[in-house]
């Protein structure tokens, strides 16, 4: 009789654990996205999905099937991702101590790169560290021949050389692609026609060219590290507002001669960053 009671208790515990697991996993809100991926990255069907975020943390994607060699064909792919997500990226602005001198006015690229670099290297970031790192990165960039403003491609190269991170430039600048990359644990740096953002905290008229880091999303907004303002920690932009403002820099331009019309005519590109 005693053994039967023990067996019954064990069965009840197992059932209770299974029920709890089912409720936890089944109640994770998810959504579908449609992304255009190279065959080397594409998932073959909806069942090869990205695991939903748990307690705000993105989970690793399930491995994709191995494609045939040298197959770079773009495949439309439907993928399950969390309906909301925010990666725990520390924030500090490009002018940490409100020193808007020439260096800090043009330091949105450096601040975005530093933000991403220190996140993936699990290093702390605060105002003091950001200010010190901006000077270091600016000095390094000058020795490498970089100009005041960095294009998306140059930003990706700096991330590779300075932080030894994996970074690539893509032209599929869409809400779904951004969500997909974030759900994989990647971060995104976007080059922008700064004034098109219409950020109320920018100094009038705002930067002609700008960069920031996208770290998450909710129902209708992207969650960013908006390095252009001290109020930029978790700053939210509506999907359409941010996507419309994405325009890359032209490396041959002189910073002080570019117009808003030239900026908004530039192609859309973004930098996807992951660690090696």
Describe the structure.
There is one protein chain. This protein is an alpha+beta fold. It folds into two domains: 28-46 and 72-82; 102-275, Cysteine proteinases (Cathepsin B, Chain A), CATH 3.90.70. It has eight helices and nine strands. It has helices spanning 2-26, 102-105, 108-120, 127-143, 152-163, 175-183, 239-245, 260-264, and strands spanning 30-38, 74-82, 85-86, 165-170, 187-192, 210-217, 221-225, 233-238, 270-275. The strands form two sheets. Strands 3, 4, 5, 6, 7, 8 and 9 form a seven-stranded antiparallel sheet that branches. It has a two-stranded antiparallel ribbon with strand order 1-2. α3 packs across α4 (127-143) and α3 packs across α5 (152-163). The longest helix has 25 residues, at 2-26. The N and C termini lie far apart (59 Å).
